[in-house]
Design a protein that fits this description.
This protein has 5 domains: 103 residues, no CATH class; 98 residues, PDZ domain (Pdz3 Domain, Roll); 116 residues, SH3 Domains (SH3 type barrels); 156 residues, Rossmann fold, CATH 3.40.50.300; 56 residues, Guanylate Kinase phosphate binding domain (2-Layer Sandwich), CATH 3.30.63. It contains 19 helices and 22 strands. Strands 1, 2, 3, 4, 5, 6 and 7 form a 7-stranded antiparallel sheet that branches. A hairpin with a 2-residue loop joins strand 3 and strand 4. It is flat and about 90 Å long. The protein starts with a helix and ends with a helix. InterPro entries: GK/Ca_channel_bsu (IPR008145), Guanylate_kin-like_dom (IPR008144), Guanylate_kinase_CS (IPR020590), MAGUK (IPR050716), P-loop_NTPase (IPR027417), PDZ (IPR001478), PDZ_sf (IPR036034), SH3-like_dom_sf (IPR036028).
């Protein structure tokens, strides 16, 4: 019986003893036989509470429960908590749990299997084991190495067929595969033998490796990281076995199953972005088991060592590792926005992809929800400009002090005037609604903290043909709208009225710049969306933001210390 359940019974026992002691002071004290049954029920409850202690004799949980119910019914107690407990113990589901606990405590939870059969090789005089594995089209999940004509199991992949069998371990020596001796064979020949199995059954003849008890007791790690670089094992000359690897891109969520090896981690790819999740079993079958595959990827140590080929042994080298490891993987955890806190939405993208127009449309359509952080500037206000509406007007000296104090999210200079967005402006805007920003990519580092918990979405351009067509259609629509407004003497004070056509060269440059920017910042993006046309983009982006705000998402583990939830 679990300790927490025993603790619950102990708590109820305290109440029961208090009630038992208090019956003598009642106006209508119980009769002697009721006191006896009341005492018996308390003693039975004590037996429940003591189940967490080791006992030599077998205890019948169901009989204890029934005795408690019977004695307490006779005692005719008025205790609501005890009556609820009695009703609880009487339910069929709890009776089933008690029966299961009974069987487990007695050790009757598994069939009695015979000992693993071992044979004696008369030539070498050593014990060998015969292992038969059914793999049903799955990879074996093990790698081999050849040393001086002998073949050994080099690595067992976590959750693979070999690992699940529990019969093969690293450093086992392979003597035969399907009855064929493998001594002096090349790895490719052995792989061919594994492929020629009957009905998916592979038979191994192995010499067991000596088991290192410390390694056997060591638990495999299990954590999640976000990749911050692209990786192709076939382009990695360091990889001992590219066939046993997985490829990934920056921003992919990886599940690390085993990192006992200093250089190569056993990893499963979950998917891209903050909403990535492991596919269900039926989905895995449909996509060929991609999300189930476990492969070897380079560790942080190996990546850092590649940058510092002289080794990572000194204290300076360890500092190098600590300062550089976040360049490759970022620890993440799943977080659900239970308190409905507002998160800043950040749209990243190359100039010309339409981020600012998307933002203007959101402010127009969802004016009651999305808001803008009012920027600062050192230029003097123009006619009809009000401080705190279009800009916060201040002096150049004050803005320079804000920059020095690292109070600016981003800033720049245009025609001898400073412009920028202060972090305090973002905080104030968050009090009014969901802040929507389109900052320079270099500003991401300043806002990517738990305080703002930003949702970073990268906006891609469409391909060349779609880009040219949709922008021509949009320009024609805005031109007609501007003409109609002008004829009605309606002011059109938006940048959309100044829409111009992009040349073919400009479109190709935007697409190229976008690809380069995505390559550089994909690792910090929670999602990616293509801006084909504004109507489609608005619909998709609205749904995407809703999902990222309401569903469980991946967050950097370095934020855990600040969450406090």
């Amino acid at each position: 019986m679990p300790d927490n359940l025993s603790a619950i019974f102990e708590t109820i026992l305290d109440y029961a003893e208090e009630e038992a002691a208090g019956t003598s002071t009642c106006q209508n004290p119980p009769k002697q036989h009721q006191k006896l049954y009341h005492k018996n029920a308390v003693e039975i409850l004590e037996d429940f509470a003591l189940l967490k202690n080791e006992k030599k004799e077998e205890i019948s949980f169901q009989e204890l429960a029934q005795s408690f119910i019977d004695d307490w019914d006779v005692a005719n107690s008025k205790s609501i908590s005890i009556q609820q407990l009695s009703h609880f113990l009487s339910s069929p589901k709890i009776q089933g749990v008690l029966w299961a606990a009974q069987e487990i405590s007695a050790g009757r939870f598994a069939p009695q299997l015979p000992d693993v059969p071992f044979e004696v090789d008369e030539d070498d005089g050593v014990a060998v084991k015969i292992v038969r594995i059914v793999r049903r089209g799955e990879p074996l999940g093990a790698t081999i190495k050849c040393e001086r004509g002998k073949v050994y199991v080099a690595r067992i992949m976590a959750n693979g067929v070999a690992d699940r069998s529990g019969c093969i371990q690293e450093k086992d020596r392979v003597l035969e595969v399907n009855g064929v001796t493998v001594a002096d064979k090349e790895p490719r020949e052995i792989v061919n033998l594994l492929d020629k199995c009957d009905n998916g059954i592979i038979t191994f003849k192995l010499i067991p490796a000596e088991v290192n008890q410390k390694l056997k007791q060591k638990k495999s790690s299990h954590r999640y990281v976000r990749a911050l670089f692209d990786y192709d094992p076939w382009q990695d000359r360091r990889h001992p076995c590219p066939e046993a690897a997985i490829s990934f891109r920056a921003g992919d969520i990886l599940e690390i199953l085993d990192e006992k090896d200093q250089y190569w981690w056993q990893t499963r790819k979950i998917g891209f972005g903050a909403l990535a999740r492991r596919k269900e079993s039926h989905d895995e079958e449909q996509i060929g088991g991609e999300s189930k595959k476990v492969g070897l990827v380079p560790s942080e140590w190996l990546q850092c060592q590649s940058e510092n080929p002289d080794g990572l042994g000194s204290s300076d080298d360890l500092q190098f590792l600590e300062s550089h490891k976040d360049r490759y993987y970022e620890g993440v955890f799943r977080w659900r926005n239970k308190k409905k806190r507002r998160r800043v939405v950040v749209l990243l993208g190359a100039p010309g992809v339409g981020r600012n127009e998307i933002r203007r449309q959101f402010f127009k359509v969802f004016a009651d929800r999305f808001t803008n952080a009012i920027p600062h500037t050192s230029r003097p206000p123009r006619p009809n400009e009000t401080d705190g509406v279009s800009y916060h007007f201040t002096t150049r000296a004050e803005m320079e002090r804000m920059i020095e104090r690292k109070e600016m999210l981003e800033y720049g200079e245009f025609r001898d005037n400073l412009y920028g967005t202060a972090l305090q402006s973002v905080r104030r805007a968050s009090e009014r609604g969901t802040v929507l920003l389109t900052p320079h990519p270099l500003a991401i580092e300043n806002i990517r903290t738990w305080e703002f918990a930003p949702i970073v979405i990268f906006v891609q351009p469409p391909d060349f043909g779609e880009f040219k067509h949709t922008r021509e259609v949009y320009r024609a629509q805005t031109t007609r709208s501007h003409s109609a407004a002008s004829s009605s003497n309606v002011s059109q004070n938006t940048a959309a009225t100044n829409a111009r056509a992009f040349s073919d060269t400009e479109i190709r440059q935007i697409i190229e710049n976008s690809a380069q920017m995505e390559q550089k910042y994909r690792g910090v993006c929670d999602a990616i969306i293509r801006n084909v046309d504004f109507e489609t983009t608005m619909n998709e982006l609205t749904g995407l933001i809703y999902n990222l705000e309401s569903k469980a998402t991946w967050m950097p583990t370095k934020w855990l210390a600040d969450i406090g939830e």
